[in-house]
Design brief:
Layout (H helix, E strand, L loop, with lengths): L5 E10 L2 E11 L4 E5 L6 H9 L4 E8 L2 E2 L5 H6 L2 E4 L11 H6 L11 H7 L1 H5 L10 H14 L4 E5 L7 H16 L3 E5 L3 H7 L2 E6 L2 E7 L7 H8 L2
């Protein structure tokens, strides 16, 4: 495995004529959980979309597992071992939990088995035959993450996994992220809930106006709390 799972240099991105990413530089090492934090609308989700190849107009360097991906479509990026869980989760409403889990193709050996998924997410085992439309928001989020784990993806992009969820579900998502990390997987996480992010992440990249303006490690949080509150508008 290369020294970095993700290397981004000089990444610019546009929605139509609107220039929204301005020279993003960041790195994520194997086994790290790294967050993108900042106020709403600063470009965090757009950065994930650019990494995944969903953002149509982008320029710069995006290397995943050492391979340059800036010109690749999303399906080619996924085959490198990248799993993307968007904020809207993408659950198929008419399919059961088990059918949703089994739908994506296996990208690589070593993915989480169905039995392992049901041990990690007991709620999903109880709802295995329920349609996606019948699941709560928390159950849908668990299903979206579990579906990616089954594919064997080694690098996960998670967009706002705790958004709108009850505290008990947020806590369970935290346990899942710790389990993911213990398996050696790498995670880049967009998260508004900084208390949650601070507990699970090794490092935090701070974004403002489409740029990375700071990088703060877990050990530096206490000493930089005042600056963080300013960044986040707390």
């Amino acid at each position: 495995m290369p020294d970095q799972v993700l290397e981004i240099a000089g990444l610019n991105g546009w929605y139509g004529e609107s220039h929204v990413l301005h020279g993003i530089d960041l790195k994520v090492a194997p086994g790290e959980v790294v967050t993108l934090i900042g106020r709403n609308g600063v470009g965090k989700t757009t950065t994930l979309r650019a990494i995944m190849g969903i953002l149509a107009k982008r320029e710069g360097t995006v290397k995943v597992f050492g391979a340059e991906t800036i010109s690749l479509p999303p399906e080619r990026v996924a085959r490198l071992g990248v799993g993307y869980v968007p904020e809207e989760r993408g659950i198929f409403a008419s399919l059961t939990v088990t059918e949703n889990l089994m739908l994506p193709p296996v990208l690589a050996p070593g993915g989480t088995t169905l039995d392992e998924i049901y041990r990690l997410f007991p709620n999903l085992k109880e709802r295995a035959r329920s349609q996606g439309s019948k699941l709560s928001g928390g159950e849908q989020q668990m299903l979206a993450i579990a579906r990616i784990l089954r594919t064997g993806a080694r690098f996960l992009l998670l967009d706002e996994p705790t958004e709108g969820l009850a505290p008990v579900i947020v806590q369970q998502i935290g346990v899942v992220l710790e389990t993911i990390k213990s398996k050696g997987l790498t995670v880049l996480l967009v998260e508004q809930n900084f208390r949650f992010a601070a507990n699970v992440a090794d490092r935090h990249y701070v974004m403002e106006s489409g740029k990375i303006v700071d990088m703060i490690t877990k050990s530096e949080i206490a000493g930089k709390m005042e600056r963080l509150e300013e960044y986040l508008g707390v």
